[in-house]
Write a structure and sequence with these properties.
It contains six helices and two strands; from the N terminus they run H-H-E-E-H-H-H-H. By secondary structure, the chain is mostly helical. It folds into two domains: 62 residues, Multidrug-efflux Transporter Regulator, Chain: A, Domain 2 (Orthogonal Bundle), CATH 1.10.1660.10; 55 residues. The protein is elongated, with a radius of gyration of 24 Å.
């Protein structure tokens, strides 16, 4: 039995998945989405399965997963294994990354507050290459 030709354009597919056309092209180019069928005129054509896959990718990215993380999850699934353990590990790793970033930002904030506090005590024009407030940090 012949397989029916997919029929959604890239614009329709992107809209259905909540993405941009550019994102669809990028995910296809990076191998996250299988190469699209082409119409006789050369237009990319997508199936409802492609929309489901793109929606999954969009949701994974919204959780902050990196494209390589998404690729790993998809490869596990394509291998026939539910990827839930890998997803848990990836989420834990992403949480740890965010925690480290938050810590770094809090340290930066404290440095900015202290620098701003001492800035009022510095005479403007004090000998400096550009600005002593920044140079003395």
């Amino acid at each position: 039995m012949a397989m029916a030709m997919p029929g959604m354009t890239i614009g329709q597919t992107a809209q259905a998945a909540g993405l941009t056309r550019k994102a669809v092209r990028i995910y296809e180019a990076k191998g996250l989405l299988p190469k699209a069928e082409r119409s006789a005129a050369g237009y990319r054509l997508y199936s409802p399965d492609d929309v489901e896959l793109l929606t999954f990718i969009r949701r994974a990215r919204a959780l902050g997963l990196h494209l390589e993380d998404v690729r790993e999850v998809l490869n596990i699934r394509r291998g026939g294994t539910p990827p839930c353990d890998a997803v848990r590990d990836l989420l834990d790793a992403r949480i740890a990354e965010i925690d480290a970033t938050v810590t770094d930002l809090l340290v930066l904030r404290q440095t900015l507050v202290e620098t701003r506090r001492t800035a009022d005590d510095r005479p403007c024009g004090e000998p400096a290459t550009v600005c002593s407030i920044i140079e003395d940090v």
